[in-house]
Specification:
Among the domains are: 212 residues, Aspartate Aminotransferase, domain 2 (3-Layer(aba) Sandwich), CATH 3.40.640; 30 residues, no CATH class. It has 13 helices and 16 strands. Strand 6 and strand 7 form a beta hairpin. Helix content is 37%, strand content 13%. The structure holds pyridoxal-5'-phosphate. The site of pyridoxal-5'-phosphate has 15 residues, from helix 5 and helix 6.
Length: 438
């Protein structure tokens, strides 16, 4: 009798040719590019039938459909791949930031209103978790060279209340991590990493996350690897990960993970004990709550996809870097009045996109419209300056951050997805060649 995995694979092979979705997955990398009808998406899942088989197999054979054995295996393999002592998977990158900041606050005993330095430019849920955890974001204007916060301006904003610097490398590209590390050491503050856009980026040959006390990651389809939705918190301090897990799992004290969740006596081997001082009988550890938590657990099917995606990561990293280089060259060759952000010589950036800095807002407006009209997707660098948005404008006057304010006016990005074929790259060049500002 063949294994469940083999049976599902042969079933998919038998229907693959007749089923649109499966056909797409089977042929994604070999498919002919249809210039008239197909768009060049800025990103998207890079996967094949292995992920589909893994989802179905987990659905049919999983003992517990939520944060079970597959999620636990993915957490362990992810930690091994990127050099962490421990990781916890959650249902999104935003959730990862939320529980990571909650865990750090508790672990380091930070108080309400303590300050965390962060760029005003980027994705909203880098900043929102600081406010949600009653911490104060302290903003630093960006450096137009690499669009990360200006390291030379950080020191003047450090006060007695400063506890950390939350770095979110712009489209995967880190700031000078040596300078940042020196600053953090000098002032005895923590580096925290939003690694959602920079999974696999390196500084001085070491994974970026090794410079931070904890890091978060997103597995939304636009990111380097995807589980549909999903996120991860990782650290070399296991207690921080245990706290993050507790916050993501209703705030519970019990730390059984994977199949241990189904053990009669639990991981602690004393599941029934006198856990609460005011209750003098044996009670179940599973319902003891040591944190005010949320429920942010992923499905086990997401863990199963993650295991397959990790195997593809090295290829994804190489292809993103190659496509970033090729597409940058097209822009430089064919478009006047733009600059492409490049990596620092000590960085090996796992690019999320190709950052295009336009000399004028008019060039940005015309170029974005032209590319979109020709089915080449573009994106803003997310929110631009978050202080320009209704939910955040009460925090501070956006005009104090003039370079950040230029982001929505002058900057956009296009993709460097590993799904791009040679034909797609040729198409991108042919479109750029014909751009005219008039
Ligand atoms: C830098 C950064 N942080 C956090 C997030 C949030 O991740 P998610 O969409 O998985 O919630 C994103 C989103 O894509 C992001 O780009």
């Amino acid at each position: 009798m063949s294994s469940l995995n083999e049976q599902i694979t042969s079933f998919l092979e038998s229907v693959g040719e007749d089923n649109d979705i499966l056909h797409f997955l089977y042929n994604m990398n070999n498919k002919k590019f249809d210039r008239k009808n197909q768009s060049i998406y800025y990103s998207g899942p890079f996967w094949d039938n292995k992920e589909v088989v893994a989802i179905i197999e987990t659905l049919l054979s999983g003992k517990w459909l939520v944060s079970g054995e597959k999620v636990n295996k993915f957490e362990r393999q992810f930690s091994k791949k990127f050099g962490h002592s421990a990781s916890v998977m959650v249902n999104s990158g935003s959730s990862a930031n939320l529980v990571m900041i909650a865990a750090l606050k508790k672990y380091f005993d930070w108080h309400d209103d303590d300050e965390i330095i962060v760029s005003p430019v980027g994705f909203p849920t880098t900043i929102a978790p600081l406010l949600q955890n009653n911490l104060t974001p302290v903003f630093i204007d960006i450096d137009i060279k690499d669009l990360n916060f200006n390291l030379d301006e950080i020191e003047q904003k450090i006060t007695k209340k400063t506890k950390g610097i939350f770095v979110s490398p712009v489209l995967g590209n880190p700031p000078d991590m040596d300078q940042l590390t020196d600053l953090a050491k000098k002032h005895n503050i923590e580096i925290i990493l939003d690694n959602c856009d920079s999974l696999g980026s390196k500084w001085n040959d070491s994974d970026l996350s090794s410079y931070a006390v904890a890091s978060s990651c997103s597995f939304y389809p636009a990111h380097h690897i995807t589980t549909g939705e999903g996120g991860m918190v990782s650290s070399n301090i296991e207690e921080i990960v245990d706290l993050a897990r507790s916050f993501a799992w209703w705030g519970r004290d019990c730390y059984c993970v994977g199949s241990a969740n189904l053990l009669t006596n639990g991981t602690c081997k004393k599941r029934f004990d006198k856990w609460l001082p005011d209750v003098d009988i044996l009670i179940d550890h599973k319902y003891v709550f040591s944190n005010i938590g949320y429920n942010l657990k992923p499905l086990d099917m997401q863990g199963a996809i993650g295991i397959e995606q990790l195997l593809k990561f090295d290829d994804i990293h190489k292809m993103r870097r190659l496509n970033k280089r090729i597409i940058s060259e097209f822009f430089i060759k064919h478009i006047k009045g733009v600059r492409i952000v490049e990596e620092h010589k000590k960085a090996e950036t796992s690019w999320f996109g190709v950052p295009v800095v336009c000399d004028t807002p008019l060039i940005k407006e015309k170029l974005v419209k032209y590319l979109e009209d020709n089915k080449i997707q573009t994106r803003n660098y997310f929110a631009g300056n978050i202080l320009q948005h209704p939910a955040y404008s009460h925090l501070e006057d956006a005009s104090s951050y003039p370079i950040s304010n230029s982001v929505l006016r002058n900057i956009f990005f296009v993709g460097c997805s590993p799904t791009y074929s040679d034909e797609m790259l040729e198409y991108i060049e042919s479109v750029l060649k014909n751009f005219s500002l008039n």
